[in-house]
């Protein structure tokens, strides 16, 4: 039987510490190889010191500790030498076996799956923001120190993207609000809960979040200059068709604020009825009926009332996938080393909440 995977008798991977946490060292990284060669030259250089006009030669072994420290400082300060995981997938195992000891943690998966690049993909942006929001609500203290640092680095990239592109600021505002509330509780109850790192670091992070919130509050949408066809030039049936494509009530309200015509279409009772029927079951309607002054069901108010009691269906352009055959979590476009005869039958899309549940023990 062939042995699939890395030989357990090998010396293992080399790791370097970067600004985003510990990264696996790849031998093909030219920047790191140049840095290591420079450090090797330093470590093998003969060090001369004056002592009563005599030159004393120190052996390389005596300088081993100083050399290691220089290498560590070099990798920490040199941003060009950062190495990232070549594989954009992770094996999810919850218990020890003869081949594997330990288990996969939420922080390890968060570091391995390259969420830093995912926020630049418009299809994955909402997915990553929702995942960060769920972590902020309940799983922040379960992350390792490196994963927490990676978390805030990704959050910084998300905020900068929203400030530059004005893309979906409402999502990131909700995320920062939940995160600041969680941090206030954790900082106030320090000693009762586990916070990795110095308390002053968390206070600085909370101050950074407040700065981000103020920047988003002052965000001004750039007016698009376009002499061609605009949204207002479309016929009514096309505008109505666009509104029926939305699955989020807040998006319908936001679009209705653009023009008086869109506002009229966004107040259509049939539109909100379809939205309620898409997200909720009929049994749930009976428990929270809201009638208007005319005696009709107010479907718009019903939608926001039901949203407080029941989860709505989530839609994302791209999500993580889990292979039931290999127990591997990965982005679908990057793939994974599957040994199944028909890999597509083993794939299962993973929602943000399902991602969190995979690592609960």
Question: TL;DR?
Answer:
This is F-box only protein 25. The N terminus is likely disordered.
What does this structure look like?
The longest helix is centred in the middle third of the chain and has 21 residues, at 145-165. By secondary structure, the protein is α+β, with helices and mostly antiparallel strands. 48% of the residues lie in helices and 9% in strands. The two termini are 32 Å apart. The relative contact order is 0.09.
Assembly state of the chains shown: single chain
| Main β-sheet, spatial strand arrangement | 5-7-6-8
Tell me the span between the first and last alpha carbons: 32 Å
**Average pLDDT score:** 76
Q: Which regions have little confidence, pLDDT < 50, spanning 5+ residues?
A: 1-5, 28-63, 69-84
Strand content: 5-15%
Please give the largest β-sheet: 4 strands, antiparallel
Helicity, in percent?
40-55%
